[in-house]
């Protein structure tokens, strides 16, 4: 019985979805309850040095969070209304192995951690809440829906449309999907475009 339970846990942990990097490739998830003290984490693996991993914003005003690979390094660019900040962590992350990403928010401080290595930035201003939950966008993984091309005003960071799409696998996307909620593993929304899903090894 214990072996069966362990096997079920390993299979659940190992489930990942693959994105092929094509022009229609992305996956869509529930809104992030980022608030002022929200957390978000996921794992990815790829052999490509560039690609948009995650994007979410406040519906087109100021606030956004963009996570992407730039020449093998992980870059978080974000704005909480007081000006954009950039945090870069890691190198050669396009090595085909799994890497764990964590974003932690503590009022004016934002911490990016990749495989246990952290960098922190402090935002300017007086108000550090991530948008308004009711009007924030969903969380997009791997790329943006094409319909945004005709509605750039709905994006706080319109240039995200031109980022190369992520080609690789993602798993264990965990964050609170309500204001003040508890972080939990997220499932793709019914209207998402997920290229493929497969069980893969946890190594």
UniProtKB/TrEMBL annotation:
Compositionally biased region (Basic and acidic residues): 182-196
Coiled-coil intervals: none
Region span, Disordered: 177-203
This protein's GO CC annotations: membrane
Domain Laminin G: 16-201
InterPro entries found in the cross-reference section: ConA-like_dom_sf, Laminin_G, Neurexin-related_CASP
Signal peptide (from-to): 1-18
Keywords associated with the record: Signal
Entry-linked PANTHER family: AXOTACTIN, PIKACHURIN-LIKE PROTEIN
Record-given protein name: Laminin G domain-containing protein
């Amino acid at each position: 019985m214990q072996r069966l339970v362990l096997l079920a846990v390993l299979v659940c942990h190992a489930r990942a979805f693959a994105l092929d990097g094509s022009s229609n490739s992305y996956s869509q998830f529930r809104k992030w309850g980022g608030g002022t003290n929200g957390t978000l984490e996921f794992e990815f693996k790829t052999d490509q040095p560039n690609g948009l991993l995650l994007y979410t914003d406040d519906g087109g005003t100021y606030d956004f969070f963009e996570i992407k690979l730039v020449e093998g390094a992980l870059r978080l660019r974000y704005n909480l209304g007081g000006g954009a900040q950039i945090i870069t962590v890691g190198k050669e992350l396009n090595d085909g192995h799994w890497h764990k990403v964590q974003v932690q928010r503590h009022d004016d401080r934002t911490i990016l951690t990749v495989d246990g290595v952290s960098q922190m930035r402090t935002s300017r201003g007086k108000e550090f809440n991530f948008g308004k939950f009711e009007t924030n966008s969903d969380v997009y993984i791997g790329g943006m829906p094409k319909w945004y091309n005709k509605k750039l005003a709905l994006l706080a960071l319109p240039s995200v449309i031109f980022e190369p799409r992520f080609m690789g696998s993602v798993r264990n996307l965990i964050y609170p999907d309500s204001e003040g909620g508890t972080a939990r593993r997220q499932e793709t929304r019914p209207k998402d475009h997920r290229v493929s899903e497969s069980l893969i090894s946890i190594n």
